[in-house]
Design a protein that fits this description.
Structural class: alpha/beta
Number of domains: 1
CATH topology: Rossmann fold
Number of strands: 8
Shape: globular
Number of helices: 9
Strand order of the largest sheet: 1-2-4-3-5-6-7-8
CATH superfamily: Alpha/Beta hydrolase fold, catalytic domain
CATH class: Alpha Beta
Strand content: 15-25%
Helix content: 25-40%
CATH architecture: 3-Layer(aba) Sandwich
Distance between the termini: 22 Å
Length: 257
């Protein structure tokens, strides 16, 4: 990532390109670098690509939930003066995008969801009592991907640090519980904006049947599969991810080169 993190008005974010706003939301255990290839590619194709750092560990504990993270996105887009934007999210980021779209349907032009929570997911669950066991956390991080090598030492170190920091751990658990409470099944049939679902066939966190359910419930959705791919397609198969997303954006927004 060759871009500098902007810090304005209490927000930290990356931004590049001009054109249709494409806002990317990272996951609970993710960070901005997970979307490097997507950010680079689409910021050169007529999109204003923006990635805010979500305040997962800095909000008051009682407000650390999907609803308030969605409100954070609302406040952020208002600060940036954005409207009619596309929201993209992986895992928790997808869930926040969905909740935000539910509450602000006139502002969201489209959704891109990959390995999104919002219906059902397998969390790290029973691993929390073993959070001090580096090898155990390494194995859990590797299991997120089809190819365990994608879980680099930096990725594992980040997860290990999160789970061994009491403040971050408490908020991680709070957000995970909030994600279960904020199930979107009842809301999805009313969400009519174009939605692109890009899913790994080997996703064990939000398995393929979750993608099928999203596709069934979202009335204007298209589902694309990536083989030999786990929970984070934009990391594991970034070029294929972009190759699927680019024509979908062209079809619905007629902006890509």
């Amino acid at each position: 990532m060759k871009y500098t993190l902007k810090k304005e008005n209490g927000y930290s974010y990356l931004e590049s390109g001009t054109g249709k706003p494409l806002i990317i939301l990272h996951g609970l255990m993710g960070n901005l670098s997970n979307f490097d290839y997507v950010f680079d590619h689409f910021s050169e194709l007529g999109y204003q690509v923006i990635m805010p750092e979500l305040p997962l560990y800095t909000m008051p504990l009682l407000k650390t939930n999907v609803k308030n993270l969605s409100k954070f996105v609302k406040d952020f887009v208002k600060f940036k003066g954005l409207d009619n934007y596309i929201l993209m999210g992986n895992s928790l980021g997808g869930h926040i995008a969905l909740y935000h779209a539910k509450m602000n349907p006139k502002n969201v032009a489209g959704l891109v969801l990959t390995g999104s929570s919002g219906l059902y997911e397998n969390s790290m669950g029973e691993s929390y009592p073993k959070r001090g066991d580096y090898e155990y956390i390494k194995k859990k991080a590797e299991d997120v991907f089809y190819d365990p090598k994608i879980a680099t030492k930096q990725v594992v170190d980040d997860v290990f640090e999160t789970l061994n920091n009491r403040n971050k751990l408490i908020r991680t658990i709070a957000i995970a519980k909030s994600a279960i409470r904020h199930n979107m099944a009842q809301d999805l049939p009313n969400m009519t904006m174009p939605t692109c679902l890009i899913w790994g066939k080997n996703d064990t966190v939000t398995p393929p049947d979750v993608a099928e359910e999203f596709h069934r419930l979202l009335p204007n959705s298209e589902l694309f599969w990536l083989d030999k791919c786990g929970h984070a397609p934009m990391m594991e198969h970034p070029e294929k991810f972009n190759q699927l997303l680019e024509p979908w954006l062209l079809k619905h927004f007629n902006l890509a080169a």
